[in-house]
Design a protein that fits this description.
The structure holds 2 protein chains of 2 kinds.
Chain A (H helix, E strand, L loop, with lengths): L4 E4 L1 H14 L5 E7 L2 E8 L11 E3 L1 H13 L3 E10 L7 H5 L6 E8 L2 E10 L6 E8 L11 E2 L1
Chain B lengths: L1 E4 L13 E4 L4 H11 L4 H4 L10 E5 L2 E2 L15 E6 L1 E3 L21 H6 L1 H4 L5 H10 L1 E5 L5 H11 L3 E5 L24 H12 L4 E5 L8 H5 L4 E4 L4 H14 L3 E7 L2 E7 L7 H4 L12 H4 L5 H18 L8 E6 L4 E6 L21 H4 L17 E2 L1 H10 L3 E5 L3 H4 L8 E2 L5 H4 L8 E5 L4 H12 L5 E4 L2 H8 L8
Helix pairs in contact in B: 6-7, 6-12
Classes of the chains: A alpha/beta, B alpha/beta.
């Protein structure tokens, strides 16, 4: 396990799970917004893959730019992205690794038969050889109300 | 000199700057200068072959350089160059066919298998993992005929773990021109027994499951249930709709193929998000409109091409590589040696895979396709309209004056004929019937009795009263009266 830690609020946790359940059996995707390793909001984004959304997601460049803009509007930074693995464990695939950006946090939520299960966070190792699992913490002062997802 | 905008994840490599100046006249030169100044960027922008990674997008002002001159795109001093990520990923690459099967459950490969499949294992797109998926997979071939033969041979060779075959036919000489699972010594044997011998000779690791039965609405769901991919190699519409509907109801992909004369078709139907056969053809053609291979003929190599396309698609679905023929309908013309592709969409109003399906269980497909099930063999021939081969022979031997009219095509007439018969192909009968004498007793025949029944009906409609149809056609004549002649 890497030394990297990511803190999420209860609202962020709920929003990611809910998004994964809504799009099941397809993958969902979205951006993580916050500051200093703490995610305070998510930006749900459309899955624009043309390779079959059951096991792929794609955030196209225009939605990436939208996510960056929303991040600054919300007074934070883009910390990374989340996506779901329908009926697959919350572990990154080779495909995830091949397409990963450095420094971003990648949250994966497993959605089994329509119900969100495990949630994990991963960081690309500097030499791109593999992902390291980070520790995902729930913020102590997190607000109990779900953070409204900003739909792109 | 131009300004390059750096996205968030790369800023640690540019001393946290979101914009960096670089020099160069083209995008390629700018990026080269950028990665010289900030060496950490290189591995994330370029792959090991020195090409920009697929998820790295470079824009000059608002234009993607893929639509300009790529890395040769020229850049002026006041242009803004942006590096914009696309973010992609997904669940472990596994086919819809094997989705849900835990990865841990994959079987190990023996040393013999590693050697056998080494040309697969050394390909990065396949490798050990995919070979194990093949070993764990189960494919069901509907039919061990023209399409099923090449498909089964290659699937067995490729290492599919369990290969099921549904067939109830025996090998006939007329099959050997294309059904390469079977050889001359197999004529008269069950197709399944012949197939099992051939497939296990190629690869004894493959478990061959034989289902010696006709596929029916009563047994299809149970037969299909254990399999991951269904390969439709059928030659008739009722079974084709049955296979489609059973695949949709069970959520199993259908690697589809069909052939006629010089043209073949292939697609992948009934995947979760893709169209099914009924999205393409909601209704079957009227019975008799589309002839079968037995009636219309087929170029022997054609099913080889199409069956192997089906096997390729089955393998791709299992190992989860490439772009399957989902939503695409491939048409192959052997005469022109051309492939065409039609786009297919899932029809939301499709009666079986649409949003409000009306077909929720298997139906009577013979009735759906307007095919009347074969009536039980009549005890006696209808003497008013039909004659058997034996009766015809007896009457000819007695010296009865019978006019025999062969309504087949000239190329069929060259293969075999009843001595003394006159050839008038069915299509010519309406314009040539006046060559015949209404006072003669006329016997019409074709290959099996279908076309000649139509000719007899026509002749009666124009006033002929003494017309007899040869029951079972010339095939029955050759079998019972003149075995010296060839059958086809």
């Amino acid at each position: 396990m890497s030394s990297q830690r990511l803190t999420i609020t209860a609202g962020v946790d709920a929003a990611i799970r809910q998004h994964g359940q809504e799009t099941y059996p397809h993958e969902c995707c979205g951006a993580l917004v916050g500051r200093d390793g703490a995610v305070t909001a998510v930006v749900a984004l459309p899955n624009t893959t043309d390779e079959g959304p059951r096991r792929r997601f794609m955030v196209r460049p225009s939605d990436y730019q939208l996510a960056e803009r929303r991040a600054s509007e919300l007074g934070g930074e883009l910390l990374g992205f989340y996506h779901s693995h329908p009926d697959h464990p919350a572990r990154p695939s080779q495909y995830d690794l091949d397409h990963a950006w450095p420094t971003f946090a990648y949250i994966i939520v497993a959605v089994a038969e329509g119900a969100a299960k495990d949630m994990t966070v991963w960081y690309l190792q500097e030499d791109r050889s593999r992902f390291e699992e980070g520790s995902l913490n729930h913020g102590e002062n997190s607000h109990p109300d779900p953070t409204p997802a900003v739909h792109g | 000199m131009a300004k390059i905008l750096i996205p968030t994840p790369l800023r640690p490599y540019t001393d946290k700057q979101d914009a960096v100046d670089a020099s160069g006249a083209t995008v390629g030169e700018l990026l080269s200068d950028l990665t010289t100044k900030h060496a950490g960027l290189k591995a994330h922008l370029y792959n090991e072959h020195g090409k920009l990674r697929s998820f790295v997008n470079i824009y000059v002002n608002d234009e993607d350089i893929r639509y300009l001159q790529k890395e040769q795109t020229s850049v002026k001093a006041d242009d803004t160059v942006s590096i914009i990520p696309s973010v992609a990923g997904g669940a472990p690459a596994s086919a819809e066919a094997t989705a849900g099967k835990p990865v841990e459950a994959l079987p190990e490969l023996t040393n013999e298998e590693i050697k056998r499949y080494s040309r697969h294992l050394i390909m990065p797109e396949v490798g050990v993992e995919a070979q194990k998926k093949l070993k764990a997979s189960k494919v069901l071939c509907i039919g061990a005929g023209g399409l099923g033969s090449p498909a089964a041979l290659y699937l067995a060779a490729a290492g599919v773990g369990t290969l099921g075959i549904v067939d109830f036919d025996t090998v006939d000489f007329s099959n050997l021109q294309r059904q390469i699972l079977h050889g001359t010594p197999d004529v008269g044997r069950s197709k399944l027994a012949s197939a099992k011998d051939k497939l296990n000779a190629i690869n004894p690791n493959v478990k061959i499951e034989l289902h010696e039965t006709a596929l029916t609405s009563a047994n299809a769901l149970e037969l299909f249930a254990p399999y991951d991919v269904i390969l439709d190699g059928t030659d008739n519409f009722p079974t084709r709709y049955l296979v489609n509907d059973a695949c949709v109801l069970l959520g199993k992909p259908n690697a589809y193929g069909s052939i006629f004369r010089f043209e073949g078709q292939a697609s992948v139907f009934a995947t979760k998000d893709g169209p099914c056969y009924r999205c393409l053809y909601p209704e079957p053609p009227p019975p008799g409109l589309v002839p079968s291979c037995a009636e219309g003929g087929v170029l022997g190599v054609l099913p080889g091409m199409i069956g192997i396309i089906q096997a390729t698609e089955a393998i791709k679905l299992i190992i989860g590589v490439g772009e399957p023929l989902i939503g695409r309908f491939l048409i192959y013309d052997a005469l022109k040696m051309k492939f065409r592709e039609l786009k297919l969409r899932k029809d939301p109003d499709c009666p079986v895979c649409g949003t409000h399906p009306t077909v929720t269980k298997l139906i009577d497909y013979e009735q759906f396709c307007g095919v009347v099930p074969a009536a039980p063999e009549p005890v006696a021939v209808n003497h008013a309209t039909e004659i058997t081969s034996i009766e015809l022979k007896q009457r000819l031997d007695r010296g009865d004056a019978l006019k025999i009219v062969d309504v087949r095509e000239p190329n069929e007439y060259q293969i075999n004929r009843i001595p003394g018969s006159q050839l008038i192909p069915l299509g010519d009968v309406p314009k040539r019937y006046e060559e015949l004498n209404k006072n003669d007793e006329i016997v019409v025949h074709c290959k099996m009795g279908g076309r000649s029944a139509k000719a007899a009906d026509f002749l009666r409609s124009v006033g002929f009263t003494k017309v007899l149809n040869l029951k079972g056609g010339i095939l029955d004549w050759v079998e019972k009266v003149d075995p010296s002649q060839p059958k086809y």
